[in-house]
Amino acid sequence: MNQDERTQLVADIAEAFKASSNLSDDEVRWVKLAIHRQEQSIKLRQAIIEKTLGGLVWTALAALAYILIDFLKSHGFK
Fold it and tell me: Alpha carbon 64 to chain centroid distance?
């Protein structure tokens, strides 16, 4: 498939969507709100994952520091 055929295919698909979408204003608004809600849900999941991973890293660093301090205390360092 060359570039001209691909361009024509995209134009045909876009024309078919325009011809088949006879949605009312309420339906269009509902679809936009549903898309917005999905975007918010994705952003929330990403934020939860980022904060969880950050907390795990800090916990690991604190645990390593505690182990190091305990090791140094048990071997005569104050």
Answer: 30
